[in-house]
């Protein structure tokens, strides 16, 4: 009996070694230059040129190969990109012929690449809110040229990214749709570029609270002698720098026309979420990131970095189907009307009324 168990153990050990050798042979045979361009973009969402740029940025941040047969840095990046893009479980990514590897190896590659994409200087390079008047004026002008609404430096909203039930502080992540999530706040410009993102709050946190704690709010409030607006839905408190819809506005009234335009411009953030999640499907709310909240937040930030790289390079991504759009809408948590202090609310109403009057004069 003991001899039989020893033979079985030896056979299993040899089988594992043979699988490892086969994976290594397949990885060694991989030559990305042989992958057709359309297939490369389809698998990894980046063009070959953009992939090379990404490698220049983050290969120095990846751990060096510890062994002669260690995974090449470029293959680690391809593996992570494939996971972000397909939203597949790690095991299935590891089975692909373009990067065969064990599930544990895929997990390690994903963590290393995600950590590199979250390096502070990488985040600052690719996700940057306008810091001076000239930069803000460029964004304002683009919004005005496209929509005719002045002084807009961004649109803001939150979107839920599903995660598995966390082992700690589970109540912070359980949202009103009864699943666990990261409530991710994003600000975008008119080109769908993400200028600010916060993926540090659980799904139980309201949108308005995340905004109250956001450093961008303090930045905008500190601007002097400059009219600057973010556009948000009614889940945000009306402020001098935060333009929200007018409640119960009559259609074809000045307020109704403002609401129509404000919503039309605010669709920019909805399109940004659609493009982001269409390209990086691991973020779809119908799926789950099987990671702790901290790691899930880093994956979200990594996808936002890659999103901006693709937008700037003009690379088209796969769009969500109508069924996927509907699934996203169903899984998103509806906003709650934000509470507001009287003095700040009055200042916001004055600013919004001035904007409405200006729009009417310019009709």
From TrEMBL:
Superkingdom per UniProt: Eukaryota
Sorted alphabetically, the keyword list is:
Hydrolase, Metal-binding, Nuclease, Nucleus
Q: Which cofactor does it need?
A: a divalent metal cation
User: Localized where?
Assistant: Nucleus
> Residue limits of the DDE Tnp4 domain?
156-308
The name under which this protein is listed is: DDE Tnp4 domain-containing protein
* UniProt family annotation: Belongs to the HARBI1 family.
Keyword field contains Cell division: no
Read off the InterPro entries from this record.
HARBI1-like, HARBI1_dom
Keyword Nuclease recorded: yes
Listed under GO cellular component are: nucleus
One GO molecular function term? hydrolase activity
Primary localisation category: nucleus
Q: Which organism is it from?
A: Parnassius mnemosyne
